[in-house]
Amino acid sequence: MTTVQQSFEKLISLAIKREEEAYEFYMKAAENAEMPSSKKLLEELGKQEIGHKQKLEAALGGGVCETFSCSTVEEFEGMDLSKYLVDIPLKPGSTSQDILIVAIKREEGAYNFYKALSELTAVAEHRVVFETLASEEKAHKERLESIYDEHISPWM
């Protein structure tokens, strides 16, 4: 039978996988970027996702899953936290607009996920990790939205 701690461990492992996928997403998008400034931004975002992966791995190794306030597997499942970690694939030949929309949605999901986790732990050390991750994902989303507004919206 799966325990609450094992459920959280699976969830954090999925988040680590999503951070790896985000890195690959940004690196691939950078390869296809038309403007040098876009390429640089995408590479920078990719590198930050690797930093997020490392923070999650450290938290997982530091016993974070034992600190979440959730008493039963049913309660955990009722929170439906994995909904924030949905993988949104890109199609071959995606436009710059497609890439930005997917990136914005991924960052929003990651922000909501880390924000929810920060509220589930009473241990300050772990709460700060998730609050920091949430803040960084929100900043990524805002940067991407700014680029979208500046470069895509005027043409629509």
Q: Which properties best describe this structure?
A:
156 residues; single chain; mainly alpha; Ferritin; elongated
In short:
The protein is 74% helix and 0% strand. It is mainly alpha-helical and 156 residues long.
Shape: elongated
CATH superfamily: Ferritin, core subunit, four-helix bundle
**How much is the radius of gyration in Å?**
17 Å
State the low-pLDDT regions, or none: none
From the structure provided, what is the oligomeric state, counting identical versus distinct chains? single chain
User: Can you write the helix and strand succession as a string?
Assistant: HHHHH
- In CATH, the topology is named Ferritin
Number of helices: 5
The fraction of residues assigned to DSSP E strands is: under 5%
For the record, the count of structural domains works out to 1
Task: Report the strand count.
Answer: 0
- State the CATH class: Mainly Alpha
Which architecture per CATH? Up-down Bundle
